[in-house]
């Protein structure tokens, strides 16, 4: 199989599938896919540990129920299925045929690379085609709003940074969360409103790409997020309940540790029975993005398949060379550390002297 320029420009599942099929027996692509798969799993594990720390802290404060029984998730194997097929399977399992009452919440989990984002987009498309109101929920701007309030409080109290022991106390966090509300403030669209610490009924949608993206917010989000997982999940759960009661379908993508606290009977985990595809998909996604960037710079839409293949082949080699270079540096660094340790231990360098 070849990858045409028209397929490359789609930059979707069809593109990544075409690249995976074209380079199925390419040793360098397999090397890249293995690296990407291992890196994806490592990032997921690291993120899960950080999130678990925040959840435990919320449970210790009593913000989240530490004895919550984890709900059941239906597993959907996405192997060999198109995004449309996966989304239709989820909707069938969730709602069956016609649904008398409007609105609902679909929770979607799964490892990176299983297609959660693509599936959410397709779920939204299918529901909107039926005339339904759909919201794809994200906690991102809620975390940013709390961070804005925390950094503002710190500044107003003469602090140059967010000292967690001073700024992110239980009482302060309760105050910050009380300054956030969710409703139809303009009479038409649902939004989150900030009111307090000098912010006079400011709508998050109005500052999402400005104030909430400022350095004061962006640099402090990791710290604030660790201390506010429980508060944000609780706020989000209530907001999503409001949306459902108003007839909206809410699509929630996230990790089980947090979405477990959001009530819904419709929970799904995307899995790949062939886990090697996680790395292959990620490798293909990197390649298709880089290839399109290189080829589109010419401004020519009549690019032959052979040129697309050549570009992809060169990019695979380039990416693997970068991996090899990175791993060589790590090996050299470990070797240097070992040598320093050996000299210190065996020859007594760095030891204490006696008179």
Quick structural overview:
It is built from 14 helices and 8 strands. It is of the alpha/beta class.
Radius of gyration: 25 Å
The global form is globular
Number of helices: 14
Structural class: alpha/beta
Oligomeric description of these chains: single chain
Distance between the termini: 77 Å
Low-confidence sequence ranges: 350-355
Largest sheet: 5 strands, parallel
Helix and strand element order: HHHEHEHEHHHEEEHHHEHEHH
* Residues in helix, %: 55-70%
Number of β-strand runs: 8
What does it look like?
- The chain is an alpha/beta fold and 355 residues long.
- The chain contains 14 helices and eight strands.
- The strands form two sheets. It has a five-stranded parallel beta sheet, sandwiched between helices.
List the helices and strands and how they pair.
Elements: H1 5-10, H2 13-22, H3 27-61, E1 74-77, H4 83-95, E2 104-110, H5 116-129, E3 134-137, H6 140-156, H7 164-167, H8 170-178, E4 180-183, E5 191-196, E6 199-203, H9 204-207, H10 215-218, H11 221-245, E7 249-253, H12 256-259, E8 266-271, H13 276-296, H14 305-346
Parallel strand pairs: 1-8, 2-7, 2-8, 3-7
Antiparallel strand pairs: 4-5, 5-6
Helix pairs in contact: 2-13, 3-11, 3-13, 3-14, 4-5, 6-11, 13-14
């Amino acid at each position: 199989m070849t990858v045409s320029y028209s397929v490359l420009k789609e930059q979707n599942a069809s593109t990544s599938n075409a690249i995976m099929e074209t380079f199925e027996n390419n040793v360098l692509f397999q090397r890249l896919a293995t690296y990407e798969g291992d890196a994806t799993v490592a990032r997921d594990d690291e993120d899960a540990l950080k999130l678990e720390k925040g959840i435990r802290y919320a449970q210790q404060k009593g913000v989240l129920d530490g004895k919550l029984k984890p709900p059941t998730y239906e597993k959907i194997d996405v192997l060999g299925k198109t995004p449309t097929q996966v989304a239709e399977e989820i909707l069938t399992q969730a709602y069956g045929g016609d649904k008398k009452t409007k609105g609902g919440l679909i929770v979607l989990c799964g490892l990176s690379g299983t297609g959660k984002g693509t599936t959410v987009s397709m779920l939204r498309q299918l529901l909107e085609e039926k005339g339904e109101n759909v919201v794809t929920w994200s906690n991102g701007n809620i975390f940013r709003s709390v961070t804005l309030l925390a950094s503002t409080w710190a500044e107003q109290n003469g602090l140059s940074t967010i000292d967690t022991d001073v700024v992110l106390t239980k009482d302060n966090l309760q105050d910050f969360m009380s300054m956030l509300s969710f409703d139809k403030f303009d009479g038409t669209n649902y939004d989150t409103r900030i009111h307090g610490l000098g912010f006079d009924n400011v709508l998050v949608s109005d500052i999402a790409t400005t104030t909430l993206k400022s350095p004061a917010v962006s640099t402090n989000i990791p710290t604030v997020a660790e201390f506010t997982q429980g508060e944000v999940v609780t706020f989000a759960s209530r907001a999503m309940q409001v949306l459902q009661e108003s007839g909206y379908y809410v699509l929630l993508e996230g990790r089980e540790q947090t979405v477990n606290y959001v009530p819904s009977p419709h929970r799904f985990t995307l899995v790949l029975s062939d886990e090697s595809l996680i790395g292959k998909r990620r490798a293909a996604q990197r390649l298709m993005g880089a290839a399109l960037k290189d080829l589109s710079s010419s401004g020519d839409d009549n690019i032959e398949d052979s040129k697309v293949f050549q570009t992809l082949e060169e990019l695979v080699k380039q990416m693997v060379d970068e991996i090899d270079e990175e791993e060589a540096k790590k090996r050299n660094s470990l070797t240097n550390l070992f040598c320093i340790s050996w000299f210190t231990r065996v020859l007594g360098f760095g030891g204490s002297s006696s008179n």
